[in-house]
Design a protein that fits this description.
single chain; alpha+beta; 7 helices; 30% helix; Ribosome hibernation promoting factor; translation regulation; HPF_long/plastid
Length: 230
């Protein structure tokens, strides 16, 4: 695998290409992700003189059989920007490597252990078939709205609460690719509203923004009046 270095509306000197090869050690990257397919480095320059301290931008894109990992940074020169982007790439690679390692180390429970770990799970008889309800013990059934619920109610397998810092749409896409999910919930830094970015067919992405409609809220409020009689 080679490192592809290219410039966007700017020339990339040979000295910088050699520095990239020295900075991004392929052996170290492949130790963290053995399924790396390609590693691209793109250099661009901001012509606005007001952004002289961030005029050079370096974006590193690592593609493998898993999720795409990107890291970018801007600085007053391309060498400093490369150093910052390389640090971000290394941190994200280690995070993904540790995540894969923890998944492999997790112990899987057998089918016989499921009833002990999941309340309300069906049990199996000696033939490996689902045991009749009388063998499992009578479970009371009640109706809540349109749902028929057994026992204490719907089983919530997992519930998580995350503290989320507002981020841009581009950052949300990066985070989704990093964790390898098909969707990512985040708080949009522009609208301050919850949003979801998700993967569509091929390489397309979609985004859903949630906003509060006061008319809908009032219509569903218990204090809202009923229909007028004729």
């Amino acid at each position: 695998m080679d490192i592809v270095v290219k410039g966007r509306k700017t020339e990339v000197p040979e000295r910088f290409r050699k520095h990239v090869a020295e900075k991004l050690k392929l052996e170290k990257i492949q130790r963290l992700d053995a399924k790396v397919i390609s590693l691209d480095v793109e250099v661009s320059k901001e012509p606005n003189p007001r952004q002289a301290d961030r005029c050079d931008r370096v974006e590193i894109t690592l593609r493998s059989r898993g999720p795409v990992i990107r890291a970018e940074a801007a600085a007053s020169d391309p060498y400093a920007a490369l150093d910052l982007a390389a640090e971000k790439l290394d941190a994200r690679l280690r995070k993904q490597h540790d995540k894969r390692f923890s998944r492999r180390g997790a112990r899987r429970i057998s089918a016989a252990e499921v009833p002990h770990h999941v309340p309300g799970a069906a049990t199996l008889n000696g033939a490996g078939e689902t045991a009749p309800q009388e063998e499992q013990g009578a479970v009371p059934t009640k109706r809540i709205g349109s749902l028929e619920v057994q026992g204490e109610g719907p089983l919530i397998v997992r519930e998580k609460t995350h503290v989320a810092a507002p981020m841009t749409l581009d950052q949300a896409l990066y985070e989704m690719e990093l964790v390898g999910h098909d969707f990512y919930l985040f708080v949009d830094s522009e609208t301050k509203e919850p949003s979801v970015v998700y993967r569509r067919h091929a390489y397309d992405y979609g985004v859903i923004h949630l906003t509060t409609d006061t008319m809908v809220t009032e219509a569903h409020s218990p204090e809202a009046g009923g229909a007028l009689g004729g």
